[in-house]
Amino acid sequence: MTVNPLYHHTHERLEEEQVWIQQAKSNPELFGPLYKKYHEPIFRYIHQRMDDTEMAFDVTSQVFMKALKNIHKYENRGVPFGSWLYRIAKSELYQSFRDKQSLRTVNVESVTLFEMMDEMDEDQSEINKKILFRALGKMKEEPLQLIEMRFFERRSFKEIGEILDITENNAKVKCFRALEKLKKYFHEK
Amino acid sequence: MTNRKMNLDRPNLNSEQISARQNFDKVLSKHLLSKPPVWKNPWFWGPTGLASIGIALFFSVNYLNSQNETHDKTNTLAITDLPKDTECIHPPIEGEDVPFQTFEVNPNKNEEIILPSGTKIEIPKESLLPENKNESVEIEVREFPNKVSAFLAGIPMDYKKEDAFISAGMIEIRGKQNDQVVEINTEKPIEIDMMLTKNPAGFDFWSLNETTRDWTKYPVKYEMNHQKEESKLSLNNPVAIKKQIANIDDQMVALNQSKSEVQKPSTESFKIPNESHQKFDLDFNKKTYPELAKFENLVFEILPTSGYDKNFTKKTWSDVKLEKNKEVYEMIFTSNSEKMRLPVRPVLQGKELTEARKEFDAAINNFNETVAEIEKNKSVLQKQKEAYQKALMGDLAALNEKIVSNSDDKGTASFKLNQWGVYNCDKPSRYPAAMKNETFFVWESSSNSADFNQIFVFNLDKDLRFNYGDRAFHPISNFGFHANDELIIFGVERGGDFGICELKSGKSKNISSKIIFKKEENGESIKDVLNMLMNETVSV
């Protein structure tokens, strides 16, 4: 499985990012490079879970406004800035669901379903694709989030752990269990 | 099923489209606008102005506070030492208790505590009756959002002797001043809106009797999130209600669209034959028809639409071949004097046909389930719409009816408190029957028998914990479990050693009389291990 490339920074990139953060703390106008760097991944994270594209752009803006407002609270204690933004994005996203401004949506690609069938040792057939799609629809929110992050967005366990505020090992176990749940639904024909 | 939409292969936006929508200036300007203007900054007015404003503020705020003040204590919460064990509430594992969050409140003011979960505790002025009214009172609170937290805290979750509780939310609250319990004024009870972790449909509300270790029913009012919204609507105006109806209509249109897009599987697409139609075995060039090459047992069935003479087989044909004309296969029969084209379709035989029938059945089931679910969702929406329409016609009470219980709508439990203790939204469920034969508990590492004095069976499918041994209603000899369910069995020896046995759904059927326990020795805390095993959503 390939992984989310943006998450894997070089040491130099990380240092550069820390400089941007420090600058943005003293002057919000210097938040620009961080906005430019993370706008697309945060939008994609939100849009993946939402049906309305315009609303996804709005929520993305809200995420960055909230980040600007709270950047003075951000301290580099092992959680990368990107994961901090994802936490804000998750919070804003679910707020929009609660406010009924948008509908929770699961966007699945056929190619991902075939990859998952491979991971689940199932035949890569059209009929299995439909069954798997249906099984995903039956999943509860928490395991579904893990499946989305691991398989649809190809995130590492470490990153999933940072976004969900759990340990890498816990993320691994939870992803495994989510996949087991999915298999269970898959076989409930 | 949650209220969510599933999309397959939605076109993705490319990076250019996304970056075209970047607008940092707009984000920045909104951010700057949200900050208070400079003239509102006290420093703008200089030391004299600041001092004047400060003095004025001091007196006015002090005056207002003495009348009526509400504090959001979210930012002042602190984790205290672990609670003291009691005979009733006794954590099974030393050092793994759930700590209280402590809040200092003024007994002479209206106070409000909001917990991180969203649970709200309102303490009216003079509700607390401490010995010294001029000193603050410490309110200690802990919530138990999942099985692990209730287990680690040692909260007894048995109801009478026959049942264990499935919890939808539980809270423990105490009040004290200088280590002395503070009484609550029964005429001014504390009001709690407890956030629930499950839909409370079918659940009752209980308070723990800490003398008998049993639970008694307690008055509560459940409020669902959708009801909250609806009651807000009732206070607003018809425009808001009409908007809801329009929203429902939109959802209905989307559901109807989804329904029309769900295609019923046809026997044709699965190459299942119609027994009453004539079929021919025919050699064809597999390179010309690669889509048919993968099938071993293929014959061609004549389509009934052709209106052909069924006696054509009695004629002598010099050649028969297959052709494809605009996605329709045709068999071309040729003789010296005649040429006949018959539309046909390829169908399967033998094992391939058996497999195709299975796939077809599964596809039909899938189709029926999808349609049924769409219909169910439509029915839910229809009921909601009817309720809104009634409300529009003046029957606002309809909005307060339980329109439809959405399984993911968890809501809150609102109750009044005039006694400290543990309060729980629960549903009792029967203990499993004891094992027929004596059960032996064995350590995997040494094969020695484990001398457990407490055994806890977590049933993950039923979301329950069953307790056996010390401090439980059931002795270990009553040990039993639901054989078809996913289980985590946790045993504690008197010396403090503990072991875990994990049984997947259906696996426990094979257990006869010996259950093998693993010791957890990888250095992780038992809380983390249990949270991982049980896939709990909320850490404690």
Please identify the oligomeric state: heterodimer
Summarize the amount of helix of chain A as a percent range: 55-70%
Distance between the termini of chain B: 27 Å
Total count of helical runs of at least 4 residues of chain B = 10
- The fold-level CATH name of the largest domain in chain B is Chondroitinase Ac, Chain A, domain 3
Span between N and C termini of chain A? 28 Å
Supply the CATH architecture of the largest domain in chain A. Answer: Orthogonal Bundle
Detail the poorly predicted runs of chain B.
37-46, 48-81, 400-407
- The proportion of strand residues of chain B reads 25-35%
Shape of chain A: globular
Tell me the number of strands of chain A. 1
Number of DSSP E strands of chain B: 28
The average pLDDT value of chain A, as a whole number, equals 85
CATH A-level architecture of the largest domain in chain B: Sandwich
Total of domains of chain A: 2
Task: Specify Rg of chain B, calculated over alpha carbons.
Answer: 35 Å
